[in-house]
Amino acid sequence: MATAAIARHPAAFWDRVWMWLTTVDHKRIGALYGVTAFLFFLLGGTEALFMRLQLMRPEQNMVPPETFNQLFSMHGTTMIFLAIMPLSAAFFNLIIPLQIGARDVAFPRLNAFSYWTFLAGGIMLNTSWFLGGALNAGWFAYSPLTGLTFNPGHGVDFWAISLILLGIASTAAGLNFVVTIVNMRAPGMTLTRMPVFVWMTLVVSFLIVTAFPVITVALIELAFDRAFGFNFFSVTAGSNPILWQHLFWVFGHPEVYILILPAMGIVSEILPTFARKPLFGYMFIVFSGISIGVMGWMVWAHHMFTVGMGPVANTMFTLTTITIAVPTGVKIFNWIGTLWGGSIEYKTAMLFAVGFIAMFIIGGLSGLMHAVSPSDAQQQDTYFIVAHIHYVLFGGSILGIFAGIYYWFPKATGRLLGEGLGKIHFWLTFVGFNVTFMPMHFVGLNGMPRRQSTYAADMGWNLWNMVETIGAFILLASLLVFLYNFFRSGRKGEQAGADPWDARTLEWAIPSPPPEHNFDTIPQVHGRDAFWEQKHPHAAPVPAGGANGQLHPAEHQGGGHEPIHMPNPSYWPLLVSVGLGIAGYGLIYITHRAPGAFSLNWGGLAAIVVGVTFAAISTFGWYKQPAAGPEH
Prior knowledge:
The chain is mostly helical. The chain has one domain (25-562): Cytochrome c oxidase-like, subunit I domain (Cytochrome C Oxidase, Chain A), CATH 1.20.210.10. Helix content is 65%, strand content 2%. The strands form 2 sheets. The chain has a two-stranded antiparallel ribbon. β2 and β3 form a beta hairpin. α3 packs antiparallel against α4 (65-99), α7 runs antiparallel to α8 and α8 (242-275) packs across α13 (383-413). The radius of gyration is 25 Å and the shape is globular. It starts with a helix and ends with a strand. Residues 541-560 have low confidence and may be disordered.
């Protein structure tokens, strides 16, 4: 049917394609981030299913060991950098300008550039499967496994260069949202009146801007080691490979909070809406999020308790890791306080939010076990660690992201996701997740090592590995239910209206989906829950003249009178990203190399020259293009 429609209206189809390629509208870029990241999420899940099939029974050879190494390395990289982070970025793009009363982000074309560069990095990473083999040294790529002696192929090069591109994309987005939140809030929206999701986005954006340069330095050093024979991490040249671990985890632990804080912000918006009461301890939740962002820089070496740092370093990082549990616990108690005594409505979004709290508590408790270095010495590199990270990043981040999808899907599309199918999706996810990952605690404490493609039949791990694989297929079923619900509701779902949840924040004060310019008149904010107070004057006093300068949602678009200048669509950000991608492939193939022997590859050099030139010309075109379109 779609093919026939294209054949009947080819001009309209290509106009629509051109619109998406040149868009700088934060809502469309949010949609691009969301769809692309979810496709990568499905890819990462497929990689995990192949691993679970291999481990379902002992001594299988369904997946060869080298392929298994590539699967777990790419699964971790894909889920962290290509799924969870950009899924959070989708919410940042869609929701933040609406929640702060702005018409767009501060730098719309930079926003588009961040998406297209993210896409270029994701494509580059996954083309490694077809160009000689993917990364096989774990998503953390420990030296010396990444040296030419043990890894003469190009899988590590693809990983390093694609992560540099992804870092450029993330840093651009982080800077954009810092400036947007700091400078573009509606009049009257002070820092203490910002929604918690806006606060968590601001903290995450600062973490991105400060953490990604660290991993970028490490990746450049790794690329130079491999391409030109430098000796940053070479043991034979007298270098210390532990340097890589320090650089990686100085980035890697703030990265954990880059992944989890957005979900915490989402849950902090959903709980008050469906508990029908204000968020309990707003300031405590805000300051605990800031504290987590700051203290996240002080705990990185708890990933390195077994590398021989010594008792003083181990003790110090044990103490800092235990301490960072305090602000996390504060958030949990405040969420519970929000639910306590509330008139709770268990919509699907609320179920996922409550599920997030429960699963994140389990992940946090096992994290405290890792904080104690003697305990960590037993658990290190076992499936207990795998269980912990999945309770934090799937039970935490992914459940929080699904809560956000069900909550904000009506705002993005104007239609509600089906509640019946949504609840089936939640319970299948909740059961499948626990069946998959809870047994990993048991086999981990029983000594099953991670990152091995098989195990002996007499180790006592057979039953639990079979159970874990069954749980993985329950998760697959849950995703199929969600996809059916998503596509069905997008076409035939119930009309949502502007404010289907009777929510508290500004994005619900305008129609669903929002118009291109978001607000006819920039709202005036007079309180933390001003939109709620305007709708419910009996529940809270409303300042004279209205709480936030908005009309009732159904009447809001009655006719604004402010001059509205929207940014011009632009293809230049896409072209700059294409140029960077071409140059990235050139960097991968810049030399012919073997340990101790390097010679220039003229094809790789030509690709670098072409890519950099193309990006430079496109950047100049970007600079010359007028920023804003005519008045609407």
